Amino acid sequence: MTGRLEPRTALPRARIAVSALFVTYGLAVSSWAVHIPAVQDRTGVSTAMLGTMLLLLGAGALAGMQLAGPLIGRIGAPLLGVVGGLTASAALAVPLTATNPVVLGTGLFIFGATGGLLDIAMNAHAVYVERRYGRAVMSSFHGAFSIGNIAGAASGTALIALGAGPITSALVATLGCATLILVSSPWLLRGPHAEPGTRRESCQLAHDAVPTRASDKLRRVLTLGTLAFLYFVCEGAATDWSGLHARQHLGADGTASAVTFAVFVTTMTIGRFTADRLTDALGAFRLLRAGTVLAIAGITVVLVSPYLPLTYVGWAVYGLGLAGCVPLVFSATGSLPGSTATDLSRVVGMAYVAMLAGPSVIGWATRVVPLSAAMGIPLIALGICLTMSRAIRQPSTAPPAVPQRTGSSPTGAGR
């Protein structure tokens, strides 16, 4: 809290600690992503079968997220974040070292489930910290996630270039993630104020007037969940298929194909650390539409480019465009009056089903069309997002006052 209810240093430290959780999850996800081509070669799974394996990752994430809401009510977001982060760090080693499809599928499901716990918990705490600051900071948390993506992509690419084996890669990723969790956990906020579940005031980020009925709130949750679903289809396509697209469509080697994902997350990181100020200047609605249009331009370049350097440019523009979209949707969800951890877990659950089911659909599509054509699916998703963007309206210019009472706790979650 602020003022008399918490030390002056507690809130900045909590922001650092929550950012560390985001970095950890980003590091874990990208450590897996850059090794996908190598894991595919080692396990012998086809591109279509790999799509099914990624669906198992999404199913695990959904299962973990549905458990996270009730668990936050019992033990609080900080403790769940630590537990989820440590277990996800350990689970990451299973798919990275898999040598057959059974181990790979099992490992991806476990990694997805533990990652789902971490994701909801860290975002629940992020919603609370943002409210305590009284201004937009959510995009900076997602920027921290992207920093983790960059670190994982850079370290993974370096390990690949050095010829490191799967066990070495797994140890580096697992120990790095676990260390971040253990070092940052003492700064997470504690107490009832850190446990979402009670009613709270609106931050005026959701579209239209404050809903007064449960049916109105449910409609808004589902609308925002649909937007999150579509945007995560787009992010998942870049995470899981950018490297394989470069290798199969343009003949890139292992290192060059890994660079495509690194380019994407680098520009996304830059965008996310500027998105909070752009939200204040342009408003959520305008920023969402502008980002969507920019992402459409980027993926179009990727689809038509016959050259690897131009493809890098396309992924860079794509990442910059998507940078602020997901944080805006999640911030709007966490700002709904009466929002609970369950509400936000629904939106995040829909999003993460998309992040893994969307790429799985791309994998299945490769049975009938080349991967270069299947990558048009994100373009379709972005077109739908553009038509639905009015689900987010321009936020109020003045942030709401931070409530000075212990009975008003934040709710929800969602990276």
Structure write-up:
The protein is an all-alpha fold and 415 residues long. The protein has a single domain (3-391), classed as MFS general substrate transporter like domains (Growth Hormone, Chain: A), CATH 1.20.1250.20. The chain is 74% helix and 0% strand. It has 16 helices and no strands. The protein has helices spanning 10-33, 36-43, 47-75, 77-91, 93-96, 101-133, 138-161, 166-184, 214-250, 254-282, 284-304, 308-322, 325-334, 341-365, 371-374, 377-388. Helix 3 (47-75) packs antiparallel against helix 14 (341-365). The chain is globular and about 55 Å long. The two termini are 22 Å apart. Mean pLDDT is 82; it is low at 1-5, 195-212 and 394-414.
